[in-house]
Amino acid sequence: MPHDDPSPNDLDAMLRGLPGVTLDRRVEVQTLRRARAVLVEEEETGLLVGLRGFWERAVAPALVMGTVASYLAWAVQSAGSLYQ
Amino acid sequence: MGSPSDLALVLLLQRGDPAAFGKVYEAYGPRIFRFLARLCGRKELAEDLYQETWIKLALHARRLEEDTDLGAWLYTVARNLARSERRGQTSRPVTEELGVDAPYAGASPFEWASATETQKRLELALRDLATPLREVLLLVVVEDVEHERAAAILDLTPEALRQRLSRARAKLAEALDEQTKPGRARTKE
């Protein structure tokens, strides 16, 4: 490196002093609108997933148990009436 | 590891809180765009990748780990999007043809007009650096990202980052020196 090159410190100071880069307002608005739409969509998806999970974990087993219990009760009742 | 303020924001983001999203956008938006504009060298491309970066955050908000460093996460996504874009390109960006009197593609004509001669030379020298060297300078020096975080973003060991940074500074100094020589040849990637 030639002796008159800027030192690393000088270079860093020059790089830090570079002007900003402006983002167009139009792009900013569009970005936020699209991102928020995705956030809402994800929330709805999350709700559906949550509902499905609740169905699978709680409602469906309860229905199965209820059906089995009803069947057993019916079977016991039927068997009882046969012996009478 | 994210800062305590990041933790609060991450917890809100996990619930899909739009206000938290707005705060993250406000805190990191200008930095991410500045990084992308100088990394890509094309304003329209930088704008597209910028949008994609924020959409990725919206998509992943609910799955963020509690200790997510939001700044590092966003820089990583932005950098990876720019890398994917470069892989899909078959030729150099149109800015290759721009001379020293034309703005680098991340700047508006107004920004270019208001820059000093030294700044213009520096922008052009930076633009002509190989991408791995440019991205390390942009992150560590221009964006002032700590070495440890920058190494994580660039997927480097701390030692590899230090070496790359040193090489990038040397190449940039060389490129600036080249510019001052009469009948200079432009550095190619």
Task: Give structural notes.
- The complex is a heterodimer of chains A (84) and B (189).
- Chain A is an all-alpha fold and 84 residues long.
- Chain A is 81% helix and 0% strand.
- Chain A has helices at residues 8-16, 25-83.
- The relative contact order of chain A is 0.04.
- By secondary structure, chain B is mainly α.
- Helix content of chain B is 69%, strand content 0%.
- Chain B has nine helices and no strands.
- Chain B starts with a helix and ends in a 9-residue tail after the last helix.
- In chain B, 38% of the residues are buried.
- The chains are: A mainly alpha (84), B mainly alpha (189).
Write the layout of secondary structure elements.
The complex is a heterodimer of chains A (84) and B (189).
Chain A: H1 8-16, H2 25-83
Chain B: H1 4-14, H2 18-40, H3 43-60, H4 70-87, H5 109-114, H6 117-128, H7 131-142, H8 147-154, H9 158-180
Helix pairs in contact in B: 1-2, 2-3, 2-4, 3-4, 4-8, 6-9, 7-9, 8-9
Report the average pLDDT across residues of chain B: 85
Q: From the alpha carbons, calculate the radius of gyration of chain B and give it in angstroms.
A: 18 Å
What would the CATH topology of chain B be? Butyryl-CoA Dehydrogenase, subunit A, domain 3
Low-confidence stretches of chain B: 91-102, 185-189
Task: Calculate the mean pLDDT score of chain A and round it.
Answer: 80
- Strand runs of chain B, count: 0
> Roughly how many Å apart are the termini of chain B?
34 Å
Number of helical regions of chain A: 2
DSSP strand (E) fraction of chain A? under 5%
SSE series of chain A: HH
Structural class of chain A: mainly alpha
* Share of helix of chain B, binned: 55-70%
- Tell me the domain tally of chain A: 1
Distance between the termini of chain A: 109 Å
Strand content of chain B: under 5%
